[in-house]
Amino acid sequence: MAAPGPARRRSPALALVGVLLPPVAWLCALGLSYLVQDFACTAYASAGHSPPATVIGAVVVGLDVVLLALAVSAGIMAWRVHRQARDTEPSSPLGFLGLLGLLLSVGFGAGIVLVAVNPLVLEVCA
Amino acid sequence: MTTTDQQPAPTAEERARFEEVWARPRGWRRALTSVQHKSVGTRYMVTAFVFFFVGGLQALLMRVQLAQPEQQVLSAQTYNELFTMHGTTMMFLFAVPFLEGLAAYLLPLMLGARDMPFARYNTFNYWCYLLAGIILYSSFLVGMVPDAGWFAYVPLSGPEFADKAMDIWLFGLALAELAAIGAAIEMIVVVLGMRAPGMSLDRMPIFAWTMLCVAGMIILAFVPLLVGSLLLELDRNVGTSFFETDRGGDPLLWQHLFWIFGHPEVYVMFLPGAAIISHVIPVHSRHRLVGYPFVVAAVVVTAIMSLGLWVHHMYTTGLPPVTLSFFTAASMSISVASGVQVVAWLATLWSGRPRLTVPMLFSLGFLFTFVAGGITGVMVASAPFDAQVHDTYFVVAHFHYVLIGGMLFPVLAGLFHWWPKFTGRMPSPRLGKVSFWLAFVGFHLTFFPMHLTGMWGMPRRVFTYDAGLGVGLLNLLSTIGAFVFATGLVLAAITLVGALRRGERSGPNPWGADTLEWAADSPPSAPNFARIPVVGSRAPLWDPPPDDPELDRMAAAFDHAPQNVRATPFTTVLSARPGTAAVQASPSIWPLLAAGGLALAAVGLLVESGWVVGLSVLLIVAGLVVWELQNERELGAGEAKEPVGGEYLVEAPGPRSPGWWGATMAAVVLVVAVSTVAFSMLFLQVNAPVWPDGATLGTPWLSAGTGLALLVAIAASWWGSRQGPLEHDATPVARTAHLAAGATTATAGTVALALAVAQWPAGGLDHTAHAYDSGVLMLVGTLALATVLGLGITVSALVARLTHTRDVRPRIMLQNAAVLWTGVLVVWAVAWVATDLLPTVVV
C-alpha cells in the first residue's frame, strides 16, 4: 500500500487546529479585552495617573482584530480539510472535523466581533 | 456481531474463566470493594437523589415560611441556614454528582467499553463525594450549620462574621470538588481512548461529546473554586489576607473565583441535560437527530463560552461599563448556541413519528421550561435590566427555570428512558405520566409567580416580607405549587422504585433505540460486552455492522478475552482504530481507605487535633501505597501472557494507554491551579490601594535552582522511558537503566522540593503582613504540592520497575512521570512570573 502523501498526513493536524483555534481565539479575545481594559484602567487609577484611554481602546480592538483573523483563517483551513476529505475519504472523520471547525469559526468569530465593538462605542476607562 | 475465522470461538472453559475474572464481589464486600462503573454510577445516582430529597425538604420548609407575610414558622437564622444548605446540596451534592454518576454508568456502555479507565480512582471519587456530604450534614449534628449562602461571599464568610460552620462548609466543598475533578479526568480518558473499534469522533453519541466538553469545563472551572476555598480557609485560620482590604486583599476576588466556577457550573448541569434530550427525542420520535454536526458545534460553543461569562453575576459590583459590555456580548452569544440545539430537537420531532411516552413528556416539559428560562436569561444578561432585578425573586425564578427545566426534567426523562436498561424492568407509564403532570404544573405554579414577586420588588434571601408589599397571594401560590411539585417528584421516585419489583420485563432494547448501551443485556452483565461491538455509523443498532476486517479482528480478539485479567480495547482518538488493551481494575477496598484518610484530615483540622491529622496522613499514604501495589500486581498478570489475541499489547507508551492521559490531565489540573493563584495575585496587585513597591520574592538562585532540578527530573525520567524493548516477547534489558533513571528523578525532585520550600524562609516574608506575602506563600505551597505529586509518580515508577519483569510497564510509568514533571516545571514558571516578574512590570 502506498504511503499517504504529505497533504493527507497533515490533514488530521490541520483539522484539529481548525477545531481548537476558534475557541482559543474567542477566549483570548474576551480574556485579553477584559484584562487589558479593566486591569490597565484600574492600575492607572490606583497609581493616581490618568489612563491613556485611547491607547487602551486601540490595543483592545487591535488584539480582537488579530484574533478574529486567526479564527477566520482556522475556519477557512477547516473548510478546505472538509472538502478534501469529502472528495477523497468520505468515511473519514476528517470531513466531520472540518465542518465542525468551520461552524466553530463562524460562531466564535461572531462572538469576537460582538466583544470588539464595545470599545468603539463606549468610553474605555469610564 | 460478525466473527472472523482468524480467531477461534471461545471454549466453554474460556467463557467460564472470563466470567470469573469479571465476577462481582458479594455481600458486604460488594458494598465496600466494588469498583465497576455500574456499581459506582448507581451509588452516585442513589446518593445524589437522597441529597436531592433532603434539599427539597429544606425548600419546602422555606416555602412554608414564605407562604404568608411576616410569618414566624422559621427564625431568620434557621432560614439562612436552610437556604445555604439547600443551594449547597442541590449544586454540590445533587446536580453535578448525579450527572457524573449517570456518565459513569452510561459512558462505557454507550462507547462499547467494559469499565471506566481508572476504576479504583472512580470509586475513590465516589467515596470522597459521600464523605463530603456527610461532613457538610454533620453541621446539623454539631449545631454549626453554614449560613452564609451557597456562594459564601466574603466578608460574610470571612473570619470576622462566620464561625466554625464556614470551615465545615469549606472542607466539605473541597472534598466534593476534588471528587468532581477526578470524575472529569475519568470521563475525558474514557471518551477519547476507550471507544468501540470504528466509533470515530463523528460517530460518537451526543452524550459522549457533551460529557467530554463538560469534563473539560470541570477541570478549568472547578479548580479555581478549589483554590478559592483554600485561600478563604487560609484567611480564616492562618491569617493570610487575600480578601482583607486593609492588607492588600479584596473581597471581590472571592466573587471572581466563585463565579469563574459558578457560571460554567450552570452549563455543567444543563449540557448533560440537553444531551439526554438529544438521545430521548430521536429514540421516541423514531428518527435520527437532525443536524448532528450543528448540535456538536453548539455543545462546544456553549461549553467554551460558559467559561467566559462569570462577570455577568457581578454586574452590580461597580465594574466599568466597558467591562460589563464585554460580558453582556458574551452572554448574548451563548444563547444562540443553545437556540441551535432547540431547533435541532424541534426538527427531529417534526421529521419523526413522536410517541408520547413518559420520557418524551419530560422532554417536552424540558423544552417548554428551558426556553422560558433561556428568555429570562437573555434579559438578565443585559446589564441595565440586571441592575433592576438583581437579588430579587426574578433571578430566583430565572435560575430555577434553567436548572430544573434544563437539568431536572431531562434527568427524569433519562431515568424513565434508561430505567429498563438499569434494572431490566419497565416503570408504569400511567404513574409516570401522572408524576410528570404533577411535577410540570407544580413547577410552573411555584416559580412563575416569582417573576412577578421579583419585578414587584421582593428581595431574595430574606426570611419574611412586609404585607404591604402586595406579594402575599403570589407567595401562597408558590408554596402550594411547591407541594404539588414535590408530590410529582415523590410519585416519580415511587414509580421507578416500584418498577424494581413489579415492572414488566423489558428485554435489552424496549424502545428500539440506536446506541450501543441497548445492545447489552438489561441490566448489563459485569463486563457489559463479552464480545466488544464494532461500529460503522452514528446509530449502530439501526444500521448494519461495518464490513471492516481490522475492526472485526479486534472484536474477535476480545471475545470473552482476556481471561487472566480485566481488560478492554484502547483505540485511537480520531478514528477509534484498534490500538492496545487497557487493563481494568478489580475490586479493592484501598480507595475507601485513602478517601477516608482525606475526610479524617478534614475532621482533624476542624477539631484542631494534630493526632487526628497525623493519623489521617498515615491512612492516606498507606491506602495509596497498597493501592499502587495492587495495580502493579494486576498489570503484571496482564502482561504475563501474550498480547490479547496475539496482537494487542497490554498497554503501550504514549497516548496508547490510559496512564499517559491520566498524567497529562493531572498536569493540566496543576497548571490551572497555579494559574488561578497567579491571576489572583495580579488582580490584587492592580486593585489594591497599597502594594509593596517593586516587591519580589528576591531569591533568584533558589528559584533558578528549583527550575534546574525540575529540568533534570524531566530529562532523567524521559531518558528512562526510552530504555528497553516494547515487544512482548523481548528479553528485558533495561532494569538498571530504569532504576538509575528513577533514582535520579527522585533525587532531582527532592532537591527541587527542598529548594522550593527554602524560598519562603529565605525571602523573609510574613504571610500575615500583606496580600503579596500571602500570595507568595500560596505559590510556594502549590509548587511544593506539585513536586510532591511528581515524587509520588516517580516512586510508582520505581515500584513498577521492582515488581515487573518486562521493561514495558516501567517505561510507561517513567514516561508518565516525565509528563507530570513537565507540568510541575510549568507550575514553577507561572509561580516565578507571579512572584518576581509581574510585580516589576505591572504599574
TrEMBL record, chain A:
Keyword Membrane in record: yes
Transmembrane segments: 12-35, 55-82, 94-117
Keyword vocabulary terms for this entry: Membrane, Transmembrane, Transmembrane helix
Domain of life: Bacteria
Protein known as: Uncharacterized protein
Source lineage: Bacteria, Bacillati, Actinomycetota, Actinomycetes, Micrococcales
TrEMBL record, chain B:
EC number: 7.1.1.9
Transmembrane parts of this sequence: 44-62, 82-107, 127-148, 168-194, 206-232, 252-277, 289-312, 324-349, 361-381, 393-416, 436-456, 476-500, 587-605, 611-629, 660-681, 701-719, 739-762, 774-800, 812-834
Domain Cytochrome oxidase subunit I profile: 22-536
Enzyme class, UniProt record, top EC level: translocase
Pathway field: Energy metabolism; oxidative phosphorylation
Location(s) in or outside the cell: Cell membrane
Membrane topology field: Multi-pass membrane protein
Record Pfam families: COX1 (PF00115)
Catalytic activity: 4 Fe(II)-[cytochrome c] + O2 + 8 H(+)(in) = 4 Fe(III)-[cytochrome c] + 2 H2O + 4 H(+)(out)
Annotated InterPro entries: Cyt_c_oxase-like_su1_dom (IPR023616), Cyt_c_oxase-like_su1_sf (IPR036927), Cyt_C_Oxase_1 (IPR000883), Cyt_c_Oxase_su1_BS (IPR023615), Cyt_c_oxidase_su1_bac (IPR014241)
Keyword annotations from UniProtKB, A to Z: Cell membrane, Copper, Electron transport, Heme, Iron, Membrane, Metal-binding, Respiratory chain, Translocase, Transmembrane, Transmembrane helix, Transport
Family in the record: Belongs to the heme-copper respiratory oxidase family.
Record-linked NCBIfam families: CtaD_CoxA
Full protein name: cytochrome-c oxidase
